[in-house]
Amino acid sequence: MKRFAVLLTIFTLAFNLMPLSAYAEDKYFSDEQIAYYKNLGLQGTTVNVYNWGEYISDGEEGSMDVVSEFERLTGAKVNYTNFESNENMYSKLAGGGVSYDVIAPSDYMIERLLSEDMLLELDYSNIPNIKLISEEFQHLSVDPEQKYTVCFNVGTTVLIYNKTLVDKEPDSWDVLWDEQYRGKVLMFNNPRDAFAIAQARLSQDYNTIHENDWIKAAELLAEQRDLVSPIYVMDEVFNLMESGEYAFATYYAGDYLLMLENNADLGYCFPKEGVNEFYDAFCVPKCSQNKKGAEAFINFMHEPQVAFENCEYIFYRSPNITVENNEESSLYDEEVIYPDEELRTQYFENLPQNIIELENKLWTQVKSGKLSVESELQDRRIYIECAVIGGAAVIVIIVKAVSVYKKKKEQDLSDLYER
Question: What is the pTM of this model?
Answer without folding.
Answer: 0.81
